[in-house]
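A note on notation is needed here, since sequence and fold are reported together in a single record. The reader may check this reading against the record printed directly beneath this paragraph.
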Amino acid sequence: MKDKLTTLIAGPTDRTKLFRFGSIAPAEYQNFIGKRAGILARYIPQINIIPDDGVPLDIARAYKNSGGENVVGYVPKGGIRKLEKYFQYCDKIEEFDTGWSGLNTCLSLKGDIIVVFGFSPGTLVEVVYTKYHKKYLDRDVPVIIDRTTIDGNMPPELLDELSIRYFSTNDELSKILEGYKK
């Protein structure tokens, strides 16, 4: 792909989804986030998030603590006052020239890959919309999903049209990210 990767970090605002549907124990959550973010900091010079309380923001904080270079927070045009308290965890805030629906469907175009840590309705929109980026914009945005944060696999009907890879360990994530840098 290229030397300097940018990734969208996608996941639920409800952290308990990782405990309830994945295999992450609540007592291990911070350690888990720290280790995954450390891998991201090693390979990814910029991560993009929607700066809201939840898994992506936790990854962003740990990413910066692990030496990660740049966190960019995206908000709908006009901003959202409710999110302002989370802006401090971003190096830069950018307005996306759309409302929430445009942000969730097109934010993946601001990066090279999506790394998913758990599912929510918004996360699924971000993932499945990559079909349209590929079909109409000729832009394949690979999706990398942490299997330990979900219950099962994506349905085969979706896998048929999306570029999805799974990982379960830090080593697997490292190997996948290394492969995208080439």
Remarks:
- The beta strands are 6-10, 46-49, 70-76, 92-96, 113-116, 143-146, 164-167.
